[in-house]
Every structure is written in C-alpha cells, then in structure tokens.
C-alpha cells in the first residue's frame, strides 16, 4: 500500500473530529444522593465480612461503590461510634459529634453516673455542669449552655426528656 492511500484531507479530518466530539455518549443513570444510617452501615460491613461483593451491595442499597468503599475503610470508626450511641444507631447517619466533644462526653458520663445513683437531674443542673466542664477543659469563651444547645446535646446522646 502506498502512503497516498491513507491521505486524509482537511475536510475529512474536520468531519472525523466532529463525529468524535459530538458522538452521543452513553451516561450512567444519575442516582439519588443516599446516606445510610449506622444500622445499615453495620449490616453492610457484616455482609462484606461474609464475602459479598461491593458492587452488589452498592446496587442493592442504591449507593455508590465509593460509599461502600468508604464504609469499609471506616470500619473501626463506625463500630466505635455505634457502641457510643447505640440508642441512635437507626437514626444517626454520620460519625460526627458536637463541636465540644470532650466536654460533651464528660457531661454525658457525669449524667450517666448521676442517673445510675438515682439522682433526678433538671435542665439547669445539666447546663451549669456543662459550663463547669467548659471552664475546666477548654474555656471556650463563646460557649453558652443554651436551651437549644441542651436540646441538641440530649438528642445526640439519646437522653429523653424526664
């Protein structure tokens, strides 16, 4: 074969470029954003331990493969967090705590001790102890143990209104 047999004119090359650029690309269907709760994440981890494939689980739970990978990668964090907030496993979706996690964990431990001793705690007692722990740990000048903060704290730690 001769070189001139393969010669492409400028018009032909532009035509080929247009065909390549404007060719219809098949796209994957857009899936809805879906964040599984801790209960589902633990279930996924158990199924991964049983040898199920990540892509099969992603399809079943309508999650991205990267989400399944992230769940697998954060296995220890998920198990630790689930044991801390076992009362909220069905509703919690993320692994974040409040801004003052040291203060809140200390306050929750104090609350649990008082409850175990049979002491009934009012909101004002919890709020004043939160201010005490704030001063003791980090002395955050902007922290106010407001009623809104207290309600969110109780929700995070599964403390019901007495």
Automatic annotation (TrEMBL):
Query: Recorded GO terms, molecular function?
Result: DNA binding
| Superkingdom field | Eukaryota
Q: Which UniProt keywords apply?
A: DNA-binding, Nucleus
Q: Where is the HTH CENPB-type domain?
A: 91-162
GO (cellular component) term, any one: nucleus
PANTHER family tied to this protein: PROTEIN PDC2, TRANSPOSON
The protein's name is HTH CENPB-type domain-containing protein
């Amino acid at each position: 074969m001769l070189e001139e047999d393969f010669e492409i004119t400028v018009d032909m090359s532009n035509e080929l470029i247009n065909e390549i650029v404007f060719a219809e690309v098949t796209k994957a269907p857009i899936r809805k954003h879906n964040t599984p709760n801790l209960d589902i994440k633990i279930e996924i981890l158990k199924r991964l331990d049983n040898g199920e494939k990540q892509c099969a689980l992603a399809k079943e739970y309508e999650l991205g493969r990267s989400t399944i990978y992230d769940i697998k990668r954060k296995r220890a964090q998920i198990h630790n967090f689930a044991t801390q907030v076992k009362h909220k496993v069905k509703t919690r979706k993320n692994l974040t705590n409040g801004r003052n996690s040291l203060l809140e964990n200390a306050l929750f431990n104090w609350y649990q001790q008082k409850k175990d001793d049979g002491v009934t705690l009012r909101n004002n007692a919890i709020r004043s102890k939160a201010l005490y722990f704030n001063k003791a740990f980090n002395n955050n000048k902007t922290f106010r143990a407001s009623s809104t903060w207290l309600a969110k704290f109780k929700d995070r730690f599964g403390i019901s209104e007495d």
